[in-house]
Amino acid sequence: MELKDQILANKLPQHVAIIMDGNGRWAQNQGKKRVFGHKNGVQSVRDTVEAAAEIGIKVLTLYTFSTENWSRPKSEVSTLMSLLVSSLRKELKVLTKNNIRLHTIGNVGKLPEKARKELIETIEKTSGNTGLILNLALNYGAREELIRAAQSISKKIVNNELLPEEIDEKVIESHLYTFNLPDVDFLIRTSGELRLSNFLLWQIAYAEMYFTEVLWPDFRKDDFYKAIINFQMRERRFGKTSEQIENINEKA
Ligand code: IPE
Ligand code: IPE
Ligand code: MG
């Protein structure tokens, strides 16, 4: 039986987030420059997006460029930005064909003009699509996101629009980049690194995590399906006991 057919339609994570890591090492392993890895990572993005759309995932968030990635060599940063622009142009057809809507999180206003324009255009052109939401984290950092949230909440308090006692989870959530998206259920990181690298700190509070040694340019549909099957074997307890969870399942 194919991996895809082992996936249970009624136990899918709604929101999957991926730290796409290992492009540089993949290229260097072959004696090539790091950017060769980034170029080859685009096919993995295509495969993963299609796989997610095919099985009915609602939101797929891809960590594409972090607030810390600006510290890389200038030439690498500019290659990544050009790749973003060219991929958006090329993939529009695939997005449309698969009913996928583009969305972004992060401080997108600080991206180079060309990238910003292309993003705005693609978001606009796919805004009527009702299938998978492809959410690119661009110039995204969880700490920057939390600082921004704290600043806008403070402004509301100063302007008497909000009382300090009224701050709860909902208020915080509504000030994050992800305000209109469901919680992250499943976080995947490729390349064997076991860290979060400033990704979605608030949103993954109860996410299941999955780490694989596969380097991002080698990641294919079956790797994604394998991860989803692994997710489906887990019991999410949210602080309760296993027995309580079983009772809930029996009643359902
Ligand atoms: C991930 O691959 C892509 C980005 C961070 C943009 P890396 O470029 O981090 O690859 P490694 O981790 O150096 O192998
Ligand atoms: C995280 O990967 C950022 C993205 C995948 C976009 P990095 O390769 O930048 O993370 P660190 O620096 O190794 O933690
Ligand atoms: Mg890396």
From TrEMBL:
Belongs to the UPP synthase family. Mg(2+) binds at D21, E208. InterPro entries: UPP_synth-like, UPP_synth-like_CS, UPP_synth-like_sf. Keywords: Magnesium, Metal-binding, Transferase. Substrate binds at residues 22-26, 34, 38, 66-68, 70, 72, 189, 195-197. Its EC number is 2.5.1.-. Catalyzes the condensation of isopentenyl diphosphate (IPP) with allylic pyrophosphates generating different type of terpenoids. This is Isoprenyl transferase. Its cofactor is Mg(2+). The active site is at D21, N69 (proton acceptor). It is an enzyme of class 2 (transferase).
